[in-house]
Amino acid sequence: MQTETFERLESNVRTYSRSFPVVFTKAKGACLTDENGREYIDFLAGAGTLNYGHNNPHLKQALVDYIATDGVVHGLDMWTTAKRDYFEAFEELILKPRNLDYKIQLPGPTGTNAVEAAIRLARKVKQRHNIVAFTNGFHGVTMGALATTGNRKFRENTGVPTLGGSFVPFDGYMGDSTDTLDYFEKLLGDKSGGLDVPAAVIVETVQGEGGINVSGLEWLKRLESICHANDILLIIDDIQAGCGRTGKFFSFEHAGVVPDMVTNSKSLSGLGLPFAHVLMRPELDQWKPGQYNGTFRGFSYAMVTATAALKHYWSDDAFELEVQRKGKIVEERFQKLAAMLSKAGMPASERGRGLMRGIDVETGDIADKITGKAFENGLIIETSGQDGEVVKCLCSLTITDDELQKGLDILEAAVKDVAGAKATADA
Amino acid sequence: MQTETFERLESNVRTYSRSFPVVFTKAKGACLTDENGREYIDFLAGAGTLNYGHNNPHLKQALVDYIATDGVVHGLDMWTTAKRDYFEAFEELILKPRNLDYKIQLPGPTGTNAVEAAIRLARKVKQRHNIVAFTNGFHGVTMGALATTGNRKFRENTGVPTLGGSFVPFDGYMGDSTDTLDYFEKLLGDKSGGLDVPAAVIVETVQGEGGINVSGLEWLKRLESICHANDILLIIDDIQAGCGRTGKFFSFEHAGVVPDMVTNSKSLSGLGLPFAHVLMRPELDQWKPGQYNGTFRGFSYAMVTATAALKHYWSDDAFELEVQRKGKIVEERFQKLAAMLSKAGMPASERGRGLMRGIDVETGDIADKITGKAFENGLIIETSGQDGEVVKCLCSLTITDDELQKGLDILEAAVKDVAGAKATADA
Amino acid sequence: MQTETFERLESNVRTYSRSFPVVFTKAKGACLTDENGREYIDFLAGAGTLNYGHNNPHLKQALVDYIATDGVVHGLDMWTTAKRDYFEAFEELILKPRNLDYKIQLPGPTGTNAVEAAIRLARKVKQRHNIVAFTNGFHGVTMGALATTGNRKFRENTGVPTLGGSFVPFDGYMGDSTDTLDYFEKLLGDKSGGLDVPAAVIVETVQGEGGINVSGLEWLKRLESICHANDILLIIDDIQAGCGRTGKFFSFEHAGVVPDMVTNSKSLSGLGLPFAHVLMRPELDQWKPGQYNGTFRGFSYAMVTATAALKHYWSDDAFELEVQRKGKIVEERFQKLAAMLSKAGMPASERGRGLMRGIDVETGDIADKITGKAFENGLIIETSGQDGEVVKCLCSLTITDDELQKGLDILEAAVKDVAGAKATADA
Amino acid sequence: MQTETFERLESNVRTYSRSFPVVFTKAKGACLTDENGREYIDFLAGAGTLNYGHNNPHLKQALVDYIATDGVVHGLDMWTTAKRDYFEAFEELILKPRNLDYKIQLPGPTGTNAVEAAIRLARKVKQRHNIVAFTNGFHGVTMGALATTGNRKFRENTGVPTLGGSFVPFDGYMGDSTDTLDYFEKLLGDKSGGLDVPAAVIVETVQGEGGINVSGLEWLKRLESICHANDILLIIDDIQAGCGRTGKFFSFEHAGVVPDMVTNSKSLSGLGLPFAHVLMRPELDQWKPGQYNGTFRGFSYAMVTATAALKHYWSDDAFELEVQRKGKIVEERFQKLAAMLSKAGMPASERGRGLMRGIDVETGDIADKITGKAFENGLIIETSGQDGEVVKCLCSLTITDDELQKGLDILEAAVKDVAGAKATADA
């Protein structure tokens, strides 16, 4: 495989190609194929962007059909039939069945753009500058979003400090015996605690980049009620956890909360095309025309495939149930692997919701060994968490049971290998 | 046309659909077609995103072929054949013939993302926080980029002030007799002038949103030499003016300057797909792995169409010459229209470079009347400038002479209409 | 008493004159006298500025003598004999006996100025922007210091957010069973917790404005060791708690910690004259000449009285022991008052160190009733805490036992009155 | 003279003691005396703090009398007779005769504190974050004030960028043929010029630290009218130029403008005691009680001497006329010196208003040589300007003609010396 071109021309900022230093060429369903024809089971799936698998045939067909008609590709924020179809499908298949009443904003087609739009609108509506985010939260790296993203890797290279964000501890951050919302609520009520009353709270129900940290459903309900009691907007960033990843379309459905705003992106287009939207309660839609813009906010291809995805997968609850079923499979296998590692002297634990799952092996070093070994054997799987200590499964939701088991087998072999090496070293 | 769905569900932030309140369905070359089958000549072209026209057949074919092979759609920043092809074509067809030596960063696929990456890298490299931008400059609306964007419409709705940007007057801002760089140079050398020594200057050679303000070629050369003399990086934001719009691939080629960094987006993919890159001199590529990221930084479709556009249009200078030729046509017609308006008591003037041209009619009101009348007669054309006072032509570069003349005829009729109404009113 | 002048000309920002709406004219020791000749015991003492009492005769004499010689009054940062005397006395009487090795910076003569200087120097030395402060901390209201001050009253009227400060919970903030430094230490070690690695921690060992919150001595030691382990500077803001208030010259002596920097002001001049200094370990003195300035940084009168105070009160440990003895008296009486209130159904508790003591009565309303009643009876006493819920004793350290008991008696009568009213209301 | 104590203990930040490395002990009128008994004529006068001379006998006497009565020294913002006397004198002697209607805020007793209060109030009243300041303006170094101070020396050592200030060119900055307010007015009216509509403009009528830059009276009037037309508050920072320095009590009286707010400090107390106030039009006094504070805002000594200064010097216009007369003397001598230097090949020019005057010798190097030589001969005189290129006379306003001439003679000898050395070197 010729990689010299990349080494010569591509910025050092590249990262995934360091873990998987091959040149990919094709992809289908749960598999990626490199230039030499080698196939890999993909448990990364575009970091949660390919919930319906690579080149999903239903979505691809819808796109090919659209292209054939010379449909508008790029429409700024003009009205197009593609956009109308998307709005109608989203309303009929997602909002109405869930009794949700939202207006839709299409910002630039990236998650960070949606977050910037949401927090800017929150500040405008509430006339307060502060946005509360949570430890280990990730909401994007453009400067506005970065104020709510905890990672030093990004925060320390900005040249100017971020402005207008405060962090409070996520569920479980202070151990099992402490409800972190006690601390948040105390700070909110404290006139000299240093917490500026926020316009909004932004939260992921399951933190993806932060290490598959799962918020409790009661914790989320309480967070919602604290927000209500204090006239603070609740923004759920469902960019990674949404679109079915946790076993429901929106990850917050499990808890029965109704956010004031929602951000979606990643798997929203279904086919991996750049796309994002912000949902907001109608009374919050206080934008004036043109107050937020972006060249690619009318990318029709993404609307076409998003519409196809909604129609194919979200007309009834079959897909949700299927995701939940597969989630159980991963959960059980991950518990087994965690036990295996713990037994070998490497304490580990499983966690997650739906098909967003991880094994916390406590150090990035062990996690890297496992994922490195897995890659050698044909599995693409990545880590997350502040130290990269969580081996993370974000496989496509449409993965077949065979592919899933095959991927899990490769992972188990890698775990055994690492556990065995440890046993040998200890001996 | 059914527009009720939009009115019910779409955020008030929508803007172009207010100027053009129809539902578009198809597009080809220089034309857009609405749901009723009415055709419009398009002088907006995705605000500079569709330099090669809607559904350009060469680019579309490349995309359809790629889709047929189940090529990787979304690859994060992994290596793919699509990316290698793009890098190689860009190097061979663009960089080498121009003696340019740049490394390439693919950030999130929007212009604002590219700008955020460029200014963050500049700050990191130079260890200074300030970025100098110019009056009427536009570089995006996410918070980092917004520090360099002059528009109050965006700046006043952020809830927190922007941080780390300073504005100095663009070429011509203080009248013909003042070289605005005298002021900039004085501030740079002044230890108590209030200008923090910047890491970088960011500039558009022709300001698109700012009103088709054209910087002089000598002014640009002097700006480059001031930057060199003061150890300041020169970033040219070629998002709107690049990709052939001014008659050269890069707009700065006219002046013979060599920026330290370049941002491209908009027409970079050619087909209107979200795409952006940052070019940087190799020694500036001081990113550490993963210090800047974004889910959609590996959107292969855009690379495939971008490669096709490069190969089809940039293998020789024929396309450039063609753009320059058409630019002359628009220039002459616009001069005539400006004279017509001036004669009718509405002072107007023409300006621009290549096919990025405008008529400054001095008030947004007159400009809106002209573009409104033009739309009635089948021409999509927009305004820019701080008050929307510049009627702007950003037609596709591939427009046929017939289409171009037809569009210009519609515009001329609109101008006559507005001039006539004024004459009647004055009488 | 003529107050109309004030009502006509003085800004609404005035505050203490609302609690004590009389016109004061003279003051001596622990007493203030109003225009009608009425005397008040002063338990406020300039909010901690008059540790040696009003018009302390030793200090006053030194000043009068100095004035008589036409000594330099205002010397910018030129060298004067007054400054040399001050430096020598401070070195001999304070630094050497405590084995402290500090250089001295004289910033503008206010506490907030000293804090601005200290945190700016910390950022410069460590090349990091963040400063960690604690819930309920107060370090001044100019914008730099305000980033470390928790009070919303000040933070919400700035028009721009503060920049470069983060808050973590002070000792005891999360209840007795939680060591808040566990949380701080976890955040420090967490690469995605949202806490930017700070240049410095700034802390009051006893929070004055925050409500007489006393940090544990072990907690302080641990804070010091966390700072050392993480290459973070420890700044102790001893503006209110220093100069003997807690029974030692520096409040941190109790814990045996050695801060990297110390800020003093308030009682530093002794006579109530504006004065402040920053102490810093010599290797931290990385200021370049003139990098921080202020017109009144060479106010000799304050140096003269400060020197006199040092010589008179700090040549041996007698004064410290005396403060400790009186602190015990207040402690016991306050415990009694707290018990009295609790018994009457108004839960209350005593806390403090040395002569910096308070009764937390849990609501500002009760506290205001007590202090209002006390004022009627000739005692000036104020509240602190986020809701003004802590009745606070900051009486001069030189108060006589008679005056102290008289003040405490007035306070006890007020407490009884409020407790009785409650009993009546409940009945 | 023993200076070792300073060298050992004093922070490197010290600056004036580097120009004048002697130890001063006494001061009277226009003279300073060092420890060896050597006298120096003082043309620095506390950087404008000692307008009435060192140890002015009238002011000193008032202070001594006050001390003798055990008057309140430090009163927080409680009401005192000293404060009432000050308010009444200020109203009767300053405000009423000038038809000015202001309320008075006493912030912390430093200039930077007054500026912080004024700009915070402006932001609060106008609900806008931006404050416009001018090139070479100096308004203090605490972080809020620093946003309006142009000096890189201070701005580059803050660790965080300043927030909420924008700079526009001061009168004359772009040469004689350009009215810099044309540029400011254009920016104000430009919706995409990058200038956020400011809450206030802050300006010195004569820039002291910036280099004795004198704004034209017409320019000031126009600035006032631009502010009015755009609903922007005009804050005149009269900290250095006020209290008679320019020949009127307020420097803006010359132009006949009426600012919305005024800041005074430096010579306000008269004797060199720390003191500052903010004046504001009554309808702007929208502070809530306690929204801005500071321990030393009730420093009675300063009010006592300030009252004495008002009564002694400002009961009629004799003092103003005297200052104007002496200003003429300095002006003429400085013109002569400038001519002398210019003739010797060192281009120089004179400028100033009243007794705030300078000779611009174009380089800091020449200026340092002149002031260094003058110091050798017994004259204390400093430089200002971005490069220290302006030799500055801020002698006390009460200086005798003899002392003034003696000081000017020393300066002339120094100039001759430097001019002569140049002639020799050139030969």
TrEMBL record, chains A, B, C, D:
Keywords of the record: Aminotransferase, Pyridoxal phosphate, Transferase
Pfam family, one: Aminotran_3
Position of the signal peptide: none
Pathway listed: Amine and polyamine biosynthesis; ectoine biosynthesis; L-ectoine from L-aspartate 4-semialdehyde: step 1/3
Enzyme class: transferase
Homology family: Belongs to the class-III pyridoxal-phosphate-dependent aminotransferase family.
Protein's name according to its UniProt entry: Diaminobutyrate--2-oxoglutarate transaminase
Transmembrane segments: none
Single annotated GO MF: pyridoxal phosphate binding
EC assignment: 2.6.1.76
BP term (GO), one: ectoine biosynthetic process
Cofactor(s) needed for function: pyridoxal 5'-phosphate
